[in-house]
Every structure is written in C-alpha cells, then in structure tokens.
Amino acid sequence: MDIRDLLRPEVMIMALAAHDKAGAIDEMVQKYADTGVITDATLYKQDILRRESESTTGIGDGIAMPHAKDAAVTRPTVLFAKSAAGVDFDALDGQPVHLFFMIAAPEGANNTHLAALAALSSLLIEPQLVAALKEAQTPEQVVQLFTAAQAAKDAKDAAAATPAPTQAASSDQPFIVAVTACPTGIAHTYMAEAALKETAEKMGVAIKVETNGSEGVKHRLSAVDIERAVGVIIAADKKVDMPRFAGKHLLNRPVIDGIKKPAELIQATLEKQGPLYQADGAPASTEPTQKGLWNRIYQDLMNGVSNMLPFVVGGGIIMALSFIFENAFGAKSMAFTFTNNLGNYAFSFLVPVLAAYIAVSIGDRPALMPGFVGGYMATLATASVVHAQNPAGFIGGLAAGFIAGWLIVGLKKLLAPMPHSLDGLKTILIYPVIGLALMGLIMFFAVNPLFAALNGALINFLEGMGTGNAILVGVILAAMMSIDMGGPFNKAAYTFAIGIYQASNFTDGRWMAAVMIGGMIPPLAIAIASTFFPAKFTATERNSGLSNYVLGLTFITEGAIPFAATDPVHVIGSSVIGSAIAGGLTQVFGVNVPAPHGGIVALALTNQKLGFIVSLLVGAIIAGVLLGLWRPAAQQD
Asked: Are 36 and 65 in contact (CB under 8 A)?
C-alpha cells in the first residue's frame, strides 16, 4: 500500500480550530465521520479516549498520535491536522502540540495496511520531516513531504541491506537486543523500533529489535541473538514473552522511553545497569512504576472479570432465550432443552475461569491450573471437610484465584536457587503437582468451610431483608454502575450481583435487576438529553447521542464514556441520580431478572415487566432532564 493512500488530502485539517484536548479529538473524529472513514463516531471516539487513558499519545516535540483500531473504521487512514497556536494535549514534555496524526485502522486490517501504518509512524522520528511539516501550508505539500521521506528511507534501507546482526556485526562491536510494544500496536511500537535502530547506528552499536504490533511478532529474537547480546531493552506497555531473557541484564521501560530516550536506554544497557532477569519473574526494580497494593489487586481482579465476561454474556443471553422458548414451546421442547443446557454449561465455568485468570495475573501461566481447580472446588457444596450445605461460591472463587496466584509466586521464590537447567522440570512437573496439592488442601480445609459459611449467611441475610433495606441496596448498586461506567465501582456492583445470582442457582435476579437497569441509564440519559436539549450539545455530540439509545437499551454502559470524559461533573452526576432512583424502584416493584445480561431483552424474562419498564423510564428521564437542564450551552461546530 502506497503511503499516499493513508494520507489523503481531503481528510487533512490544515488549521485546527480546537484549543484543548477534548475539542481537538472531537474535531478530528468529526472529520473522519464527514469523509466516511468511520461509520460510528461514538465507538471510534470511545476507543481513542480509552487509548489516551492508558497513556497520552502526545509524545513531545509538538507531536501527538491518537489512534484506534476498531469496527467503525472503513479503511486505514491517517488524518493529519495542524495547529498554529498549539493545543494542550497532555504531552509528555508538557509542551503544546502542533502536529496531529490520528490513525484509524480497521478491526480486520491486513498486513499490508498495518505495514504502511508502521512505516508512516517510523518516519516521524526524523526531525527534518517534522520541521518541514510545521511549515507546510497545503495538504498536497504534506503528501509530498511524506512521499519524499519514504523514498529516502527506502533507499537507505536498500543500501543498508545486510545479513542479520547475528551474522553481520563485527566481533568487537557491542550487540544488544530490544522488544517494542504498545497496547494498540500501530504507532508507538514502530516509532520506538525506528528510534532505537537509528540511535544505535549513530552510537556504533549493533541492535536487533523485535516488534510486538498489530502485525504480530516481527523480527523475532532467536536464542542465538539473546545469548550474544550484552543486554536487553524492553520498551513496552503490554505483556511480552519474558522467560527467554533469563540471566540477561534487562531494562524494562514504557514504550515512550524507546521513542524519547533511546540513547539513554542503549548506554545503560551497554553498562549493564539493568538487573539480571530471573526466569521465575522480573525483579521489582525492572518495573517502570511501582503500583500500590490496591491498584495491583484491582488489576488482578479485572483480569479475572474480563476473561469471565464472555461466559456471562454468551451464557446469559442463551439462557435468556431458553426462557423465551420455554414460554412459547414448553419445558419439554428441544429448543428450551438445548438452549437452557447450553447456557448452564457456560455458566458452570464462571467461577473457575474467574479464579484461573486472577491467578494468572499474579503468578503467570503456572498458576492457571491451580486457580482453575480451586475455582471449581469453590462451586461444589461437598468439597470441604465440613460438607457444607452451601458452596464457597463466587466469593470463595475470588479467594481461590488470589491464593493460587500467590502460592505459585511463593513456589517460584522457594525454587529460585535450583539450576536453570531444571527450569523445564519446574513448569512441567513441580508447579503443577505441588501447586495442585497445596491448592487442594487449602481449599478443602480452609477456604471452602469458611466461605461456605459466609456465603450461606449472606444468602440468608438477603432472603430475610426487609423492603426498606432491599431498596437501599438497590439504590447503592445501581448508583455504583454509573459512578465510573465500567471502572472499579461498576465492576464491583456487577460482580456482587453475579455472585448472588450464581449462589442462588441462577434464580435470584433482584440485584441483577438493579445493576442492569442502573447500567442502562447513563447512555439513555445522554440520548434523551441530546435529543430534547439540542442547544446543550454540539452537532457531533448530537449525532453520537442517537447511538446511545441502542447502547443503553442493550446494557452497554460504556457508550456514555466519551461524554463523561469531556464533561464528568454533569454527565456522571445526572447519571448517578437517575440510576439510584431506578435501582430503588426495581426493589419497590420486586423486579427479578433471571439473566446476567441482555438489557431490554431481559424484559421478556422478568416477573415484573411493568415494574422493569417503569423503573427504566423513570430513571432515564430524570437523568436525561437533569443533564439537559444542568449542562451549559455548547459552542456549536
């Protein structure tokens, strides 16, 4: 693919009007929507903001590269935008951004598209090109500059075509290896690669860089490469294959350091400043930042929840369909039997998968099996020394995941003195056997008895709860769904409801009703407010607001995130009030939703259809009207 196919003149903005980050993103996203590059501005913007929340794409030197890869993109495109005054884009150097490159990649982008995007990204480390772009006055000049830069790079690469570093580097030339990776894999990955290679050439150092991008792993480091290297540079914001670097001096840094500090990383590697990497886990000093205990626990928990959610959504919707088939065709029909069994099969894995992937987040792959088995044991009422009537359930599964993970971490430290030649034996034999045995003992004699009792007490408490207390719980759970719209509060409320639902053998959906309707309110509030208070929203926001009707009705709370990110006080405040009222109403009406997902589809399953509708409408209308009245008038596009 020619680089000019990515940089199309009609998609450029030579005089960006925005003065802040939110406005710049809105303006560029709208340009993509106007030119047909994206079909869903809300989805694309949501992914842009999600990437920005991970780390700013303002890389410094007046450049920002916001990017997203999703289903809304119709063709790979790079939007060039220029701001003479500069925009505060939270750049790493704190300086205003003058040049923007918003990258849009289709969800199914092929290797040709991704290679072109990678090539374009790598050109932006050239200071001469950046300086010339700041002076460009027309889209045609921008295309010409990139075309010339690409031609010069191709010529340079052709002239420098030599065997791999393992063969070409002279015996007295230092040799290092590196891995670059960013979460999206379409920009920073390749910019870091280019910066490291160019800087190494100037320093007289041979280097081989492996990229973990959207194209997959390229230039994979061989065992010979790693053995020869003085040290290793990891410039990555996502997980990469680490055990192969055991025994090497290793620096682990964010990908942006590969772009901004290549000389510093290379020099530190030559001086062997990086700690020796251990196969059983990197020393704490290799971490780019030290996370607090709560952040670490939350990260581990979210790893379990995110891997569990496909089972919840898939199994929940299939199970919901089974109840519809039961009403239509009877409990003995093939349609009901098949779908109900299939949904239950998926649901039987909820707790084991949750525990397994919490464990993996803590102890890596060796913790997967002990965590899975511990989670499975938590679902069995008889899997304890006291033969409890209740299983340890969801709460016991959470405990099993954390215990399994830290159990493997402890085993790794205990076995660290063993010779490296026995590393294979650890993975194949020692961790599985000892890990499973210890996990079984802990679950059988401690976790299951304790959490079975707690689980039973919780169920009894909820069953005996008076109407007033039930309303209060409904209010709290529903409000939590709107506080951070997919964050820790949202996930905690949803996890609680799932736990009660699972512990009741998939019958008690009272709290699921509060959580589901509470999560439907934020996008519906935005849709209502943007429809009936149009002066409070820009044209771009009004267009995006329409899609929130669908997102809200299907229980996709995240549809409200782009609006909450740019106007958190008004959007979140209104949504929390509306959700809290709706959650309380679900308990007043006694709404029971025997499905963990589906949104409006769940209406067919609830015992109180009118109560479901009234709760949803009242909460959404209150939140929408509050937002419309409270929000200041928008500056129109």
From this structure: no
Q: Is 251 inside any structural domain?
A: yes
CA distance 481 to 580: 9
Query: Under a CB-based contact definition with an 8 Å cutoff, are residues 23 and 86 in contact?
Result: no
Say which of 67, 98, 249, 570 is annotated catalytic: 67
Rounded to whole angstroms, the Cα distance separating 441 from 352 reads: 17
Looking at the fold, whether 20 and 43 belong to one and the same domain comes out as yes
Q: pLDDT-based confidence at 218, cuts 50/70/90?
A: confident
**Interval 302-340: pLDDT, tens:** 778 777 777 877 777 787 777 778 778 887 899 989 988
Q: What is the signed CA dihedral for 454, 457, 463, 466, rounded to 10 degrees? A: -110
Q: Quick count: other Cβ atoms within 10 Å of Cβ 335?
A: 15
For residue 636, tell me if it sits in a domain: no
| 315 shares its domain with 417 | yes
As for how many domains the chain has, the answer is: 4
Residues 480 and 583 in one domain: yes
Residue 68's nearest CA partner among 114, 103, 23, 28 is: 103
Is 462 among the domain residues?
no
pLDDT greater than 80 at residue 178: yes
Examine the domain organization and report whether 423 and 538 are in the same domain: no
Q: Which of 456, 478, 508 is where one domain is finished?
A: 456
For 234, the domain range is 165-286
Report the amino acid identity of residue 2.
Answer: D
Question: Going by C-beta distance under 8 Å and a sequence separation of 6 or more, which residues neighbour residue 156?
Answer: none
> At which of 456, 482, 501 does a domain end?
456
289 or 602, higher pLDDT: 602
pLDDT, residue 229, reads 93
Residue 374: its pLDDT value, please? Answer: 93
484 in the same domain as 621: yes
**Mean of pLDDT values over 189-196:** 85
Which of 182, 188, 249, 570 is the catalytic position?
A: 182
Residue 113 catalytic?
no
Question: What pLDDT, on the 0 to 100 scale, is given for residue 579?
Answer: 95
Q: Supply the DSSP symbol for 430.
A: I
Number of other CB atoms surrounding residue 460 within 10 Å: 11
Active site residue 182: yes
User: Domain for residue 461, yes or no?
Assistant: no
Question: pLDDT confidence of 385, banded at 50, 70, 90?
Answer: very low
